[in-house]
Write a structure and sequence with these properties.
mainly beta; Immunoglobulin-like; 5 domains; 3 helices; elongated
């Protein structure tokens, strides 16, 4: 039995050995191939924007002689800046064909990916690595050197209109013009744009600029275009042709300029920016050259949206200036003529200042910021020293003298008086220059205002009260000989001054606050304005008396709203805007509203 087992095993072993000795065919062996030879259609490639979608460069190479179907062979075109030995190469893969082509835009994008500046030429080393489809047997070709230029994609600027632009103060917040433009590109880079403007002949040497980020449109309000045009050299009230263009920048920092658009020319007529108030100073006036000037005798009255007026005594042989801010020499207005003419600003004002008329006396001065002019004419109307209101439409009735101060007007400038009075509908009233005296009177025909009449011209029925009882603001202007009657929504009586306090301001919560930096300018009887730096995340209050916490005003909104008083003011005070910066605060007690506008 053991013998038979051993015999079986031996037979199996012999069978295995005999099978292993049978000869088969050779295994397939693939050759190593040969390095390809690379060539280019040109060694100096300079595409233009019009070539964006055209083939501008082709690279081809010889057969690597691999032992497989050529359709499976792999080629990698390698491109790098000369001298870097392909350490930062950009590659393109080709399978099954011995060439590759590029459009102008594709080459431009490659140069952008390298981080090279647009509109310049650069030298590149280029080679091909060939291999089997599985990346085996990689072989490097020869290296060729090629110069490639990047190009800038042009921008086409289109304005909403090329018609002449006459900028009007009345339309200050309206759109003056808008612009749109085509995009430029450079690879995947972010491109920012800026609209530039200058006067013709300035050649954009010192352009005024509006940055628009990545946007392809922008609109400009009348007020903003007016300010930009004046800054560019179009004097207020004059006309010049301005040129506009768009400039693109690589990235978001506005430091690497790329391409300029076409230039569009538009004729622009400006107005002189209207200041919130106006004062007169000079030795031709009673106040001399003292600055601040005496108030209210040397403060102009606001006639309308574009004009100021004043009536005062001027001394012959002397001179004067107009100041937008009392106590500040930073800006000034004036002219070269004693009778009026072109309104000049700042450095354009003659060094000898504005000459007074040849004869001393009372004169009316009207300054028009829309036309950029001023007029000086003799003034014969007598402006009373005081003004009072009497009548059964008032709380004091027809009793004369009237109660003071509730029925006495405040002189708010050289020619105007203002008061806030409780009026009873269906009744009437008069204005008196002297309390307790019926010798002279003023009035009118309308319950809402109109021409100011004097003495015998006043209707026998007197001046009618408004149709609804309540508090009204009355303004009487002896220069324009008019009066206005407007519903009043603010505190009674309105404050005679206004200050700002709070940690949103530079002065913090210290009270009294620093003046004049935190004191409002009184624009009219009930309107106050101040431009001040405010810090986001903080708060403030408005005080009618500096150094006194007895009364306060404020609101609940960071952008404006209803004026609140005393206990109605939020315990957290009035919030500052969400972004720190300079803000124009307008507090109008006539309308009971306040607004904050970023400057």
């Amino acid at each position: 039995m053991k013998y038979l087992l051993k015999a079986g095993i031996l037979t199996l072993v012999l069978a295995i050995v005999l099978t292993a000795c049978n000869k088969v065919g050779s295994l397939p062996i693939f050759g190593n191939g040969t390095p390809v030879t690379l060539s280019a259609s040109s060694i100096n490639i300079t595409p233009a924007p019009s070539d964006s979608n055209k083939v501008v460069a082709s690279f081809s190479w010889t057969n690597p002689n691999y032992a497989t179907d050529s359709n499976t062979q792999k080629f990698i075109l390698e491109i790098d800046s000369t001298g870097r030995n392909f350490a930062k190469e950009i590659t393109s893969i080709v399978v099954g064909k011995p060439s590759i082509s590029f459009t102008g835009q594709q080459l431009n994008n490659i140069l952008a990916a390298f981080g090279f500046a647009p509109g310049q030429s650069f030298t590149f080393d280029i080679r091909v690595t060939s291999s089997y489809g599985n990346n085996n047997e990689q072989l490097k070709s020869n290296v060729i050197t090629v110069k490639i230029s990047s190009y800038l994609v042009p921008i086409t600027l289109t304005p909403s209109s090329t018609s002449d632009l006459t900028l009007l103060v009345a339309n200050a917040s309206s759109k003056a013009i808008s612009f749109g433009w085509t995009a430029t590109s450079y690879g995947t880079n972010t491109i920012n744009y800026a609209l530039q403007m200058d006067t013709v002949g300035g050649n954009f040497a010192n352009p005024k600029v509006i940055k628009t980020g990545t946007g392809l449109t922008t609109s400009i309000t009348v007020n903003d275009l007016n300010s930009l045009a004046i800054a560019a050299g179009v004097i207020g009230g004059s006309t010049k042709t301005m040129e506009f263009r768009v400039v693109s920048y690589l990235g978001t920092t506005y430091t690497t300029q790329m391409v300029n658009s076409n230039v569009t020319n538009i004729k622009v007529t400006t107005f002189t920016p209207v200041p919130p108030a106006l004062y007169i100073v000079g030795d031709a006036t009673d106040g001399g050259w003292n600055n601040p000037v005496p108030l209210p005798s040397q403060q102009f009255s606001r006639i309308d949206a574009v004009s100021y007026g004043i009536a005062l005594n001027l001394t012959a042989g002397k001179s004067y200036l107009f100041l937008p801010t009392n106590g500040d020499w930073g800006h000034k207005y004036g002219g070269a003529s004693a009778t009026g003419g072109a309104l000049l600003a700042d450095g354009a004002v003659p060094g000898s200042n504005t000459p007074a008329p040849a004869t001393s006396g009372m004169y009316q001065i009207v300054v028009n910021f829309q036309t950029g002019t001023y007029t000086v004419t003799p003034f014969t109307t007598t402006i009373p020293t005081n003004l009072f209101i009497v009548g059964d439409a008032t709380d004091g009735g027809w009793a004369n003298p009237v109660p003071v101060p509730s029925q006495q007007f405040t002189k708010i400038d050289a020619v105007s008086f203002g008061a806030v009075v409780n009026m009873t509908a269906g009744k009437s009233y008069l204005f008196l220059p002297v309390n307790g005296d019926w010798s002279h009177k003023f009035g009118g025909n309308s319950a809402s205002g109109g021409a100011l009449l004097a003495d015998g011209a006043v209707p026998g029925s007197n001046t009618p009260a408004p149709s609804a009882s309540g508090y009204y603001q009355i303004i009487v202007n002896f220069q324009t000989n008019t009066y206005t009657v407007t519903p009043y929504l603010g505190p009674v009586p309105p404050p005679s001054s206004l200050f700002i306090v709070g940690d949103a301001t530079a002065g913090g919560w210290n009270n009294p606050v620093p003046t004049p930096s935190q004191q409002f300018t009184r624009i009219s009887l009930t309107d106050y304005q101040l431009t001040v730096a405010l810090t986001a995340g903080k708060s403030f209050l408005l005080l009618p008396v500096n150094g006194d916490w007895s009364h306060k005003f404020g609101g609940s909104s960071a952008t404006g709203g209803t004026i609140l008083a005393d206990g109605a003011v939020p315990g957290s005070n009035t919030p500052a805007p969400a972004v720190s910066g300079n803000y124009l605060i307008d507090v109008n007690f006539l309308t009971g509203q306040y607004t904050l506008t970023k400057q």
